[in-house]
Write a structure and sequence with these properties.
mainly alpha; globular
Length: 162
């Protein structure tokens, strides 16, 4: 975990490589976490479908919403939250964790299992913002929103082919 946090918070690569590395780093663990949560839900006798994220048709507007609108708007909101959290004496990873739990909770309002699908990704996006914000707001914004948009693009692609 220490090595992962070292990479997330102290990268020694360009912003664009960092953004591309964050995509599988956000997506793969998120998929595993939501799969485990779904299997656990079913194992205890609950209907996982009733607690999943809302079904989504792949339309031009839903793709725009997931790939452009959500990453941009949510990153602006994430930046404000992280500005407040970073003004405390909390370690950056703790700030990112608080941010992730809040974002997971907000997404979980639409389907409890969606919390598990988003919490890890938002931890990664929050670390990206915190890390690159030291250089500039623009770079912090890109470090969070570009991987977010790419993760959502992959999710929309998977919905489209399914």
């Amino acid at each position: 975990m220490r090595r992962l946090l070292g990479f997330l918070l102290y990268p020694e690569i360009s912003l664009w490589k960092y953004c591309l590395y964050l995509v599988p780093l956000a997506l793969i663990p998120s998929a595993l976490i939501v799969t485990l949560a779904t299997l656990t839900t079913e194992a205890v006798g609950l209907n996982a479908a009733a607690h999943s994220a809302p079904a989504r048709d792949v339309t031009l507007s839903s793709v725009f919403g997931a790939v452009v609108f959500a990453p941009v708007v949510e990153t602006f909101m994430l930046a404000g939250l992280l500005k407040v959290l970073s003004s405390t004496s909390l370690h950056p990873a703790v700030c990112a964790a608080f941010s992730a739990v809040l974002w997971g909770g907000l997404h979980g309002l639409f389907g409890a299992l969606w919390f598990f699908g988003t919490v890890w990704g938002f931890f990664v996006f929050s670390c990206g913002y915190i890390t690159w914000r030291h250089t500039s707001f623009r770079q912090g914004f890109l470090a969070a929103s570009v991987p977010h948009a790419l993760v959502n693009s992959i999710a929309m692609l998977l919905l489209w082919v399914a």
